Amino acid sequence: MIDLVEIREGDALQTLSADLPDTIDLVLLDGAKALYPEILDLIEGHLRPGAIVVADNADDSPDYLARVRAPGSGYMSTPFAEDVELSVRIN
User: Sheet of 24-29: strands edge to edge?
Assistant: First the structure.
């Protein structure tokens, strides 16, 4: 199973700026909320259709929420549980 999961520690803007896999199936965002849109910029081209993005405390990142909830954004997104946003890449 270790070959199916990759955990990157450190500054997300650095650790996610290189050596990403061709396709990403699942992302858990749980860090500096203001960086969620920038992090999505880094990984978005690698998200396969159907990929899931779970953003903890997403209410603290209104720009992120506006982006994934916008019509035509390429995501289907909904609040899930308390202050968690569950988004699915649809194209």
Answer: 24-29, 47-56, 84-89, 75-80
Can you tell me which residue has the tokens 């549980």? 81
Domains along the chain? 22-89 (3.30.110)
% of the chain residues with pLDDT over 90:
84
Looking at 1-91, list the stretches that DSSP marks H as alpha helix, in order from N- to C-terminal side: 12-15, 36-43, 62-69
21-36 as b/e: b if 16+ CB within 10 A: eeebeebebeeebebb
What confidence tier does 1 reach under pLDDT thresholds 50, 70, 90? low
